[in-house]
Write a structure and sequence with these properties.
This is Polymerase nucleotidyl transferase domain-containing protein. It comes from Parasulfitobacter algicola. By secondary structure, the chain is mainly alpha-helical. The chain folds into two domains: 148 residues, Beta Polymerase, domain 2; 167 residues, no CATH class. The protein has a four-stranded mixed β-sheet, with helices on both faces. β2, α3 and β3 form a beta-alpha-beta unit. α8 packs across α10.
Length: 320
């Protein structure tokens, strides 16, 4: 696997952003064409498109949220119509059975935090909405919901010297949930293990770190300022958020992330990684990406331990 030049890295990232913006534009146009001025629904997207990391193998993690007294059966019908239209337009949809298959009432994202009802499905939908979600339809309501969710985590009277610990704990919990669920999912020997592992160690880890990075910027701000800062940072894609927070210190991990994107955009490499079960594990392609994943993790740790330092309140919260 050849090393990328600076020009290659820039090209990989720019191409991914361009493909993502093209898909977002098409999806927004189709949604407006189908639903007109319906104010009772929010359509959003997670995944690579939302993160502006679209590659040739990317699908679209679409989700529907209902506002007010929306009937979920009606929302399901609208979602099915829209998904079918996207397929007709050539947009790749995920396999059936995912956590976004069924619509959800928007207020449940804010109300179901912690407790017995906060299932894996709820924490996944809530965290992905916050950490990487992007609007497709009803932008105003989408952004208000993001603001409401942040307000649920960060009270106005939170002291300036305090971090948004409620939010940080949920971000940590989500990351650990992903890691535990990974071990559960790979018990199905028919599913490709290599591509799952590589995505976990790059895109999922990046998303987690981008959430931690956002919280780290709220120290020394009033509760109101903390909310505003988090709103601004969560409106950015994960990689751009890390670059905004850490500036030049994010350059080494950006290079490694671009190499990851270039690899999964290569049809030959992706085909190897998507082999059933463990067939993709014992390959040169997988081993090369695992080595880069270790370097990527080391770069993230460098930022945490050397740049933020162990005395930083966020780092202390991650440890205990």
């Amino acid at each position: 696997m050849a090393e990328l030049t600076d020009s290659d890295i820039s090209g990989v990232l720019q191409r991914a952003v361009k493909l993502s913006e093209q898909q977002l534009k098409l999806m927004r146009e189709l949604a407006e064409e189908i639903f007109g001025q319906d104010t009772k629904i929010i359509i959003g997207v997670n995944g690579s498109v939302a993160r502006r990391e679209t590659t040739s193998g990317s699908d679209v993690d679409l989700f529907f949220l209902g506002l007010g007294e929306s009937e979920l059966d009606s929302l399901q019908s609208q979602q099915d119509i829209y998904r079918a239209r996207l397929r007709d337009a050539g947009i790749k949809m995920p396999a059936n059975g995912g956590v976004f298959d069924e619509p959800l009432r928007a207020d449940e994202l804010c109300e179901t935090i912690g407790g017995d009802n906060d299932t894996n499905t709820f924490i996944t939908r809530r965290m992905l909405f916050l950490l990487e979600g992007e609007w497709i339809y009803n932008q105003t309501a989408f952004e208000k919901l993001r603001s409401d969710l942040i307000c649920r985590y960060v009270t106005e009277d939170l002291a300036d010297e305090k971090i948004a610990l409620f939010l940080l704990n949920d971000i940590i919990r989500y990351w650990r949930t992903i890691c535990v669920d990974f071990e559960h999912k790979i018990q199905d020997v028919s599913k490709p293990r290599a591509i799952r592992n590589i995505k976990l160690r790059f895109s999922r880890m990046l998303l987690y770190f981008a959430g931690v990075a956002a919280v780290s910027k709220t120290i020394g701000m009033s509760g109101v300022e903390k909310r505003a800062k988090l709103n601004a940072l969560f409106s950015m894609p994960a990689l751009a958020r890390i670059q905004d927070v850490f500036e030049d210190k994010a350059a080494p991990l950006t290079v490694l992330y671009a190499e990851f994107l270039a690899s999964i955009d290569d049809p030959d490499i992706r085909q190897v990684l998507e082999r059933s079960g463990v067939e993709g594990i014992d390959t040169r392609e997988y081993e090369a990406l695992v080595a880069k994943a270790r370097d990527f993790k080391d770069e993230l740790l460098t930022i945490l331990l050397k740049d933020l330092k162990t005395s930083h309140e966020v780092v202390r919260a991650l440890l205990l």
